[in-house]
């Protein structure tokens, strides 16, 4: 039974293994910039990390993986990888884009200091392309306006996701870990 689960997870991971190309990053940025909820963040954030395609799959035990790029003041500063393990009721696979905004230099430094992790309590705002989101991390609004964007950060970071495709049922506990490699 364990071999079957391992084989199924490996197959799902291969199906959703992301490749990061410059075009993918540009397209993901355009989609997030078009979302009304993220506009104030692009205008005021110290920097951001963007993952154009994160592949996620699970059957009881699940995982996700993605590669991305990190920017400070609009300039590319490095590359990053996202890894996630989840436990609980889950079945399926999906792909999504994710962006993490850094409110200030401290949040940026924390993320880029090496290996950074979001605990199971961290939450992300799920966006639909072209739709206005009303929810934010920790339950606050992420709508348009500078003061609302300032209040939507949690621990100096705000996380947004946008579905690309797939179908996944999930009631699981998970956390994300990130690595950072500066551009030399």
Automatic annotation (TrEMBL):
Keywords: Signal. This is Lipid-binding SYLF domain-containing protein. It comes from the Bacteria. Residues 84-155 form the Ysc84 actin-binding domain. Pfam families: Ysc84. Transmembrane segments: none annotated. Residues 1-22 form the signal peptide.
